[in-house]
Amino acid sequence: MKFRCERDPLVDALTTASRAVTSRGSSLPVLSGLRLDLKGDQLLVTGSDLDLTIAVRAAVSGERDGTAIVQAKLLTDIIRNLSSGAVTFEVDDEEARISSGRSKFAVRTIAAHEFPQLPEPAENSVVIDAALLSDALRQVVSAASTDESRPVLTGVLMAAEGTGLRLAATDSYRLAVRDLPGTSVLAEGQQVLVPSMALKELGRLLSTAEVVTLRLGERDVTFDVDDARLTSRLIAGDFPPNYRSLIPTAHPNRLTVGRESLMEALRRVRLLAKDATPVRLALRSDGVDLLVSSPELGQAREEIDAQHEGEELTVAFNPEYLMAGLDVMPGDEVILETVHPQKPALLRSSETPDFLYLLMPVRVP
After folding, report:
1. How do residues 305-350 score in pLDDT, each as one tens digit?
2. CB 219 within 8 A of CB 160
3. Structural domains in the chain, sorted by start
4. What is the pTM (predicted TM-score) of this model?
5. Which of 83, 150, 191, 196 could form a disulfide linkage to 159, CB 3.0–4.6 angstroms apart?
């Protein structure tokens, strides 16, 4: 194998593929490496931990086709720290030689036959607007759990909903649901669970893309984005089937407030929120009072103008979870709908019904 390539596009390809390389110990040491496949003037860089695979194509000046596997972090660090300009990469026997200007490196390679055979993506495909999917992932993925002892909660539900697609995630303290009407990806009644970590990486790829091609297999899902392909194993199991019943159908209490005003006030009062100290929201007819009280630090209170319909009451939330919901909420105004201080509250935009954020209250004395 031998090729030449400008440093910057090569660094981009290596960095992107490296995000799928396992950072934990593995029974397969080869998974600490990146696989490089050269055919003509096309270099394919692949990283995988078996659950997540990212492959990136880069245009190079190829001289001799071949395949090599090099330790991912070492290779990426070497290329990144070279001077700007052309890089020559050549592999003979068990050694990869990298040169640029006056810099020359020789590093050991890993036997290519040890790299596992990766599944081919399904043939059926659907094209989705990248900006639309990126926005939906930004709103939903962060609500998924990071507790691997409950795998189904670390995934994001992708389900057929009417004539469109629904994304939903929960960590049991909050629930985020985003509908994409008219985006027909799954068959009627079909649903799958995609690991949230894989979708976080997908979100990075979507930032500059126009469209994404989705291919759904029996055990995995593949997304093609420009020159990159991301494949993830699906999570076995069912998303909490009762998540719909958690969403109240009637809300006797309704607060309408400016999103930025609420976020700014929340940023200030949560400075005194230590170890998830809750923030109290006292809802009244002409506004809302925010209060945080900490025995160790003191007390913060702020009043905001708002419109409230219904019973005057006080409800408390984890400030980080409330801020996370406000941060991804579209529009200038948000609506907080409550039934009771001890029942889930619904946060949504006054401009669109396509996204909702359900938040469990915190019990306070």
Report:
1. 999 999 999 999 999 999 999 999 999 999 999 999 999 999 999 8
2. no
3. 2-114 (3.10.150.10), 126-244 (3.10.150.10), 247-359 (3.10.150.10)
4. 0.91
5. 191
